[in-house]
Design brief:
Rossmann fold, 47% helix, N-(1-d-carboxylethyl)-l-norvaline Dehydrogenase, domain 2, 2 domains, binds nicotinamide-adenine-dinucleotide, alpha/beta, eight-stranded mixed β-sheet, 284 residues, globular, binds acetoacetyl-coenzyme A
Length: 284
């Protein structure tokens, strides 16, 4: 499996923008696909803001920032991804949308190209089944915020071949990440542990056992977490968390994975957390 140099990213939201930035920072040539230009603009603004933070901290200088931005092109036409060695999909956590994209990419890409999903919880082999290259399909699960979090979960389906896994481990390390190997089961490794914890924090708040501030302070000061669970839920996105909970509950029927009624109602009310300006907390 030749070196991965040309990278495509589908989705330029919270995660896609971070993945595009991180790959371009590692020297890759990146094309980001979004549903419309407004979403591309929002995503690129997030990338510029993050890179400016790195310049402020002295981690990179302005010319390096500009070179990184110069390695990122944007498009709303999936056909522009046809020359990519690797495409990482980071669109909405919805299997139908992901499968449609995988099928479209599969028709376009050269036989050697790898297609990965940044999905939090969906069945990766189901996406692979929408392509004619299931051996070259895996999960490549980054963590939010991608420019800062060191972990990448590499999800090997029952069909993914070893050269693909080896190429993805090398790619993750080239991006400065620490890859771990996960099986294609809902929530993989981290979310299998994290999501029940986050949902339980919502249940505690819903039951009036403590204030949102005290629940968050409790885990920050008591367990050294950088963010309390309700702050983290706003950061991840309540919409995304709701989809993940539905997906995991559907597979396991474990009550600890069932989306709390409050979460469903917040999402229906458009309260998605930081990204919508309001979740468990309000954001300017
Ligand atoms: N880009 C560049 N720099 C950034 C940044 C970004 N996106 N976000 C923050 N920073 C910088 C800040 O400039 C600051 O720099 P200094 O350390 O030099 O001061 C530093 O990072 C700290 O930022 P903040 O002061 O804003 O806040 P913080 O100290 O708490 O760090 C954080 C922010 C790294 C996000 C930290 O709060 C944290 O680690 N939170 C937990 C995140 C987490 O759990 N992620 C996983 C979510 S689950 C998931 O992703 C999987 C899924 O499928 C849902
Ligand atoms: P988001 O809502 O911030 O971004 C999703 C983006 O996908 C949107 O900008 C939307 O316009 C775009 N999109 C939807 N359909 C598209 C299509 N057909 N073509 C191109 N773009 C399309 O969501 P997010 O938080 O970035 O999550 C994206 C994926 O990453 C999900 O699968 C999620 O489970 C996973 N993930 C999320 C986090 C997190 O903390 N938010 C962490 C790890 C993984």
């Amino acid at each position: 499996m030749a070196d991965i140099q040309k990278v495509g990213v589908c989705g330029c939201g919270l995660m896609g923008s971070g993945i595009a930035q991180t790959a371009a920072t590692a020297g890759c040539d990146v094309i980001v696909l979004e549903a419309d230009r407004a979403a591309l603009e929002r995503g690129m603004a997030g990338i510029r803001k993050s890179l400016d933070k790195f310049v402020e901290k002295g981690a990179i200088d302005a010319p390096a920032r500009d070179a990184i931005l110069g390695r990122i092109r944007t498009t709303t036409d999936v056909g522009d991804l046809k020359d990519r060695d690797l495409v990482i999909e980071a669109v909405v956590e919805n299997m139908a949308v992901k499968k449609e994209l995988f099928a479209a990419l599969d028709k376009l890409l050269a036989p050697h190209a790898i297609i990965c999903s940044n999905t939090s919880s969906l069945c990766v082999v189901e996406m692979a089944a929408a392509t004619k290259r299931p051996k070259h399909v895996a999960g490549l699960h980054f963590f939010n915020p991608v420019p800062l979090m060191k972990l990448v979960e590499i999800v090997k389906t029952i069909v993914t071949d070893q050269p693909t896994i080896d190429a993805l481990f090398a790619f993750a390390k080239r991006l400065g990440k620490t890859p771990i190997l996960a099986q294609d089961t809902p929530g993989f490794i981290v979310n299998r542990l994290l999501v029940p914890y986050l949902l339980y924090a919502i249940r505690m708040f819903e039951a009036g056992l403590a204030s949102r501030e005290d629940i968050d302070e409790g885990m920050k000061l008591g367990c050294g977490h950088p963010m309390g669970p309700l702050t983290l839920l706003d950061f991840v996105g309540l919409d995304t968390t709701y989809y993940i909970a539905q997906i995991m509950f559907d597979e396991f029927k474990d009550p600890l994975m069932a989306p709390p009624p409050l979460l469903k109602r917040m999402v229906l009310a458009g309260q998605f957390g930081r990204k919508s300006g309001r979740g468990f907390y309000e954001y300017k």
